[in-house]
Amino acid sequence: MKEISILIGGKAGDGIKEAGHTIARLLNRLGYRIFLYDEYPSLVKGGHNFNVIRGSDKKIRAHKKNLDIIVALNQETVEKHKNDLKSGGAILYDSDKVDAKGISIPFTSIVKEIKGISIMRNTAAIGAMAKSLNIEWSVVDKLIAHTIKKQTDLNLKIAQKAYDKVNKPHLSLTRLDMGPQPLLTGNQAIALGAVQGGLNMYIAYPMTPASGILHFLAGHEDDLGIVTVQPENEIAVALIALGGAYAGARTMVGTSGGGFALMTEAVSLAGEAEIPVVFVESQRAGASTGVPTYTAQGDLLFVLHAGHGDFLKLVLAPGDAEEAFHLSSLAMKLAWKYQTPAFILTDKHLSESTFSFDSGTGEEDPVEPLLWDGKGKYRRYEDKEDGISPLAFPGNSNAVVKVSSNEHNHIGFTTEDPDMVESIQKKRLRKRKGLVEELLKYEQVKVYGNKDSKTVAICWGSTKGACMEAAEELDIKMVQPLVIEPFPVEHLKKALSKAEKIVNVEVNATGQLGKILSSYRIHADHNILRFDARPFTVDSLVQQIKEVLP
Amino acid sequence: MTKINELKTDAAVTWCPGCGNFAILTSLQKILIELEEEQVVNFNNVVMASGIGCHAKIVDYMNVNSFHSIHGRVPPTISGIKLANPELTVIGHAGDGDAYGEGLAHLIFAAKRNININLIVHNNRVYGLTTGQFSPTSPAGFEGPSTPQGSPEDPLNPIELMLCAGATFVARGFSTNVKHLRVLLKAAVKHNGFSFIDVLQPCVSFFDNGDYYREHTYELADEKHDLSNLPAAMERAGEWSYGQGNRIPIGIFYQVRKPSFEERLLGSKIIVKTKPKDIGPVLAKQI
Ligand SMILES: Cc1ncc(C[n+]2csc(CCOP(=O)(O)OP(=O)(O)O)c2C)c(N)n1
Ligand code: SF4
Ligand SMILES: [Mg+2]
To answer: Is A243 close to B81, i.e. CB distance below 8 A?
Structure first.
């Protein structure tokens, strides 16, 4: 396997994220498949930021701890990460600011000499790094011209000067004969998937790590033919989404745990009134404000149980950019077909990491909502065998569309009659059967690694990337449920039927998927739980799984 | 079928006999019929919404599209409806507990944005449905089941609040004065922007102050009052702060024309009639 891992670090305000993404694009153009991990503290200037960019000739979904190159814009980068350098690896650093051994280039002086501003040290770093990897200047030149739209010439001069200062390449990165692919963060994949699924309006209140969806969609409103809104708080967000959906617009909202907590009364309203809305919950390390810009998978049970009362929910947990895209589109369609809230459970690690994205070629199955045929008198909650009452929207000349948070009869009028209360509740819950059958068309549980192995690692969401590669390396099986509710218990039991040892891997402190599994009498022999607000890396997980295996 | 019957439903009306809500209901029915005759509204395009409380039952008694939402959340519910389809005429009904307590932030922001919706607050100055606790507009000393010694808070003046928040149509009505209320309701629906009416509504079971209102209200239209003068509106609003007082102005305090939120956000776009585009070009830019 041909691959490379590069870490670039500095303080907030040094343009680490921009540089990291430029390096990712550079490797992408050389034919590498990309995974980029972006770690930053919750502050705007200062602190320690770093990106790990991993390129490979195989599709990858995780980063490794061991590094080929460290690019240091500050001393902290060297101190924090030098122990992760592989033997034969090198540190490339700003010799004006950093004390280290390795490839020493005066980024600061170069920027001064060419009369740039201090953030352009990141451009110098990219130039020097490219030469250290023996990448032709023309590739760098084209990329910078394409990506840096402000003061392009100045940036090009700085990059070239730094490029030329490197005497001889440290290693030679071969060009692969694969074409580049779009690079998407999990958030961008969720956003585009939703548009593919018919999204008209995205409503959100800023909250890391979900804000990327809002920023991306707001930046592409006209290109995508959608509208975004930022209201006063998450309660308003959810209610605007419900109001919009009632009027016929496909709406989605996004937030993290704290914001989602505020939305739960609307979740319940969506269930009761049968209003389709997609909720994206991007988890971060908690509880409460927790570690705001870092990752965790601690809201699984919260989302699963969000909202008071009994109602139908669809909860999907993508583990990479492709899954984020397809499941987001699917959530949008199924929410509308089954007239109920749907949830995309993501986290900092999936939302803000960048992946090479392959949208595939397959045509998607059309999943259409049932619309009213216009005959007779319209009853919003008409009793139907499968529980799905035809939809009509206000403004339709023959329909009076009445929805309600109160228990209601078939027209939508408040009722307290015991027979009606019971029968309308049954009608709503009958939709579950159709949803379960519909989900059979899709892969609900994925299996990777050695499919014959009797040792199985089970994980969900963003842990997929590291777990999958660890399973391959250890020659064991890996199982990942994509659907959390309605839980695909039969599929999961089938995938685990020959298992003699089950290792449950999660980024939370109490093993929340493990608890769900136990409720279906599936018991993990070991839990590997990480809750230091960081994701697993491939190498760290391999080590931890080895420790629990005989 | 007469027009008024067209607007009625079979749902049993469960308000207490003598409740001020009846007059709000019939006034609304009347003005909708008039506005339809004037071709200002079309019944098919009318959407009503309500929060939770006695007031909220109004949607069950009107044969138009409706969204019986949850406590305090009427402004965002109807904002979502209006944004999705600006061609709809959207009328929200909230209680004083609903709009001024549970959902106050939403009310302020709906006014701040000047979204073209109508909000009618059925202000009985008490929590009716939950049996008579004090509300944000109850007078200090109000004795209810949760304040047997009397409420230790001064009331909020929602008229002043809405003027400060940027509402472009701010009015107060009195449910018993139906002729006057109808004028207000009609003007509110016709107003392009956020229309707010605080309707003093006697609650015969928990705060029966109809006689007090009858004695002390006067109509702003009978005096010299410039609708576009904000300081003058503030002065009138300050004449009565929901406590004691001899003169309670009713009528339109303030009305100005400003661009609405949906005009600024959407231009002429109608979201429910706009299909999202192919994602291909955006995806291609990510290489
Ligand atoms: C979130 C929430 N909290 C509390 C309640 C209980 N509740 C129902 S109506 C109401 C107050 C009603 O007062 P108001 O809004 O003034 O309406 P009114 O009944 O006076 O018309 C309350 C507290 C509720 N339904 N939802
Ligand atoms: S409790 Fe008051 S507000 Fe409620 S219906 Fe009775 S009179 Fe009307
Ligand atoms: Mg009240």
So the answer is: yes
Residues of chain B contacting A394 with CB distance shorter than 8 Å? 44-45, 47, 65, 81, 85, 88
Verify whether the Cβ–Cβ distance A406 to B277 is below 8 Å: no
Map A186-233 to HEC letters: HHHHHHHHHHHCCCCEEEECCCCCCHHHHHHHHHCHHHHCCEEECCCC
Between CA A450 and CA A161 the distance in angstroms is 49
- Binary contact (B84, A396; C-beta < 8 A): no
Give me the helices (H) in A403-502, please: 418-439, 464-474, 489-495
Residue minimizing CA distance to atom 9 of ligand 1: B53
Domain end, chosen from A356, A379, A401, is at: A356
Based on the fold, state whether residues A151 and A257 are members of the same structural domain.
no
Res A189: pLDDT: 98
Using a cut of 0.95, tell me whether the model's pTM lies above it: yes
Cα dist from A411 to A217, A431, B7, whole Å: 37, 18, 15
- Strands (E) in A337-467, as ranges, are 342-347, 354-356, 402-404, 445-449, 455-458
Total of domains in chain B: 1
Q: How far is CA B170 from CA B190, B252, B253, B263, in A?
A: 13, 6, 6, 20
Q: Whole domain around residue A98: which residue ranges? A: 3-165
- Report DSSP state, residue A468: H
- Kindly state whether residues A300 and A161 are assigned to the same domain: no
How far does residue A195's CA lie from ligand 3's centre (Å)?
42
Q: What is the CATH number of the domain that holds B263?
A: 3.40.50.970
Residue A502 has pLDDT above 80, yes or no: yes
- At residue B197 the predicted structure's pLDDT band, cuts being 50, 70 and 90, is very high
Ligand nearest to the CA of B102: 1
Whether the CB of B94 is below 8 Å from some CB of chain A: the reply is: no
pLDDT in the model for residue A42: 86
Chain position carrying tokens 């008229």: B159
Q: Has residue B106 been placed in a domain?
A: yes
> Domain check: are A249 and A278 in the same one?
yes
Nearest of A541, A499, A547, A544 to residue A523 by alpha carbon:
A499
Q: Who has greater pLDDT, A21 or B2?
A: A21
Structural domain containing residue B262? 3-8+18-284
Vertex B59: Cα angle to B58 and B65 (nearest 5): 155
ipTM of the complex: 0.98
> Could you tell me the two tokens for B285?
């830019």
CA distance A268 to chain B (A): 10
If one counts the domains in chain A, the total is 3
| Least Cα separation, residue A501 to chain B (angstroms) | 42
User: Strand locations in A150-199, DSSP E?
Assistant: 183-185
Parallel, antiparallel, or unpaired for β A33-39 and A354-356? antiparallel
pLDDT of amino acid A366: 82
**In this predicted model, what pLDDT tens digit does every residue of B210-251 receive, in sequence order?**
999 999 999 999 999 999 999 999 999 999 999 988 899 999
Q: Is residue A195 located within the same domain as residue A292?
A: yes
Nearest CA to ligand 1 atom 2: B71
What distance in Å separates the CA atoms of residue A534 and residue A348, rounded to the nearest whole number?
9
Q: What percent of chain A has pLDDT over 70?
A: 99
According to DSSP, the residues that pair with B47 across neighbouring strands are: B65, B90
Q: Which of B121, B206, B209 to mutate to test the pocket of ligand 2 (most atoms within 8 A of CB)?
A: B206
- Asked if B106's CB is within 8 angstroms of A235's CB, the reply is yes
Given CB atoms, is B12 within the 8 Å cutoff of chain A? Answer: no
Strand-pair category, B65-68 with A501-506: unpaired
Q: Residue A156, by phi and psi: left (phi above 0), alpha (psi -120 to 50) or beta?
A: alpha
Residue B244 is predicted with a pLDDT of 86
Q: Are residues A238 and A152 in the same domain?
A: no
* Residue B10 DSSP symbol: S
